[in-house]
Amino acid sequence: MTPSNPHPDPATGLDTAAQLITRITGELGTRLGLVTLDGARRPCPGGHTPGREPAPALVVVAHGSRDPRALTTVTALLDVVRALRPGLDVRLGHIELNEPALDDTLRGLPTGGAGTGAGAVLVPLLLSRGYHVKHDIPAAAAAAAGPGRPLRVAAPLGPHPLLDEALHARLVEAGWPAGAPAAGHGVVLAAAGSRDPDSATDTRRAADRLARRLGVPVLPAYAAPTEHTPTTVPAALRALAERGVRHTAVASYFTAPGRFATQAADAAPWLAAAPLGAHPALAALLLHRYDQARSTAPGAAPHRLLTSA
Q1: Which CA distances in Å does 171 have to 201, 262, 287?
Q2: 9 pLDDT exceeds 70?
Q3: 190 is in which domain, residue-wise?
Q4: I want to staple 69 with a disulfide (CB 3.0 to 4.6 A). Which of 75, 174, 226, 257 is the partner?
Q5: Residue 25: partners with Cβ closer than 8 Å, 6 or more residues away
Q6: Does residue 215 lie in a domain region?
């Protein structure tokens, strides 16, 4: 993980890299403290304590991909989530293309008596607002919810300071200067594209945040351009070149490998970062969105959570 300002983001008060490392270390220390000298396990925060209602399950909702690396990557990410919060029931559901399907995952949730079930929080493994976040996932939750099975839908992951951290780390892994880059550097933030204007707004905000962090121009671009996200990755590369940028990296605004991520990386003239994958900042962000949604009423609109990053 790359060094960064140890103070919280002033706009949100949320963790930067140094604080994330401290918090993860503290959580791991807490987990070790749950084991007694004889090997027995004490009750775990986030899990079930006898006599208390269990915490809602965390259902991570992935899009799905024909690329077999995507499922492997998402599975590894969920393992990091479980390591950060042992005892929490963490499940996976896909919108399409992969198993388990979201509907099947929701049907498999336990059901208690009226008012007794812990239910679940659905956290989209998606980076911006769009049709899946606003319609598909809430519809699946509404169809599966019932007495003893309250379901909440969290906001999408981005934009957020923890995504800034993961994007920066992936760029450094690919060869981006760890310190302040020299003049003539720039980044194309490659995303999937969407017909929803809110998705374009979120991606532009993510690009602006990354530009401030890196101190270089960052342009959003899209592997599947639409009316609201018309700029292709090659077009963004040309635009930066016209501004005198000689070393342009492509940052992958994708959670896992797939056709669009590969297509964007292949267009890179210099270096291309890997998708966000199982980065610990992404795992921490999934848990942050889960915790946010737990404080909202079941059925609340997920995009409203974006008012509090």
Answers
A1: 23, 15, 24
A2: no
A3: 161-272
A4: 257
A5: none
A6: yes
Regarding whether 231 and 171 lie in a shared domain, the answer is yes
- Indicate the DSSP class of residue 157: S
Three-state DSSP string of 65-109: CCCHHHHHHHHHHHHHHHHHCCCCCEEEEECCCCCCEHHHHHHCC
Place of tokens 């590894």: 76
Task: Give the Å distances, CA to CA, from 287 to 149, 221, 273, 275.
Answer: 20, 28, 24, 19
Same domain, 141 and 102: yes
Q: Is the pTM of this model over 0.85?
A: no
- What tens digit of pLDDT does each residue of 247-274 get? 999 999 999 999 999 999 999 999 999 9
Q: How many residues does the chain have?
A: 309
pLDDT band with cut points at 50, 70 and 90 for residue 242:
very high
Give the CATH number, domain containing residue 190.
3.40.50.1400
Query: CB atoms < 10 A from the CB of 139, how many?
Result: 11
Determine the pLDDT at residue 41: 38
Give yes or no: residues 143 and 62 share one domain: yes
1 within some domain? no
| Amino acid 233: pLDDT | 97
207 close to 220: Cβ distance less than 8 angstroms: yes
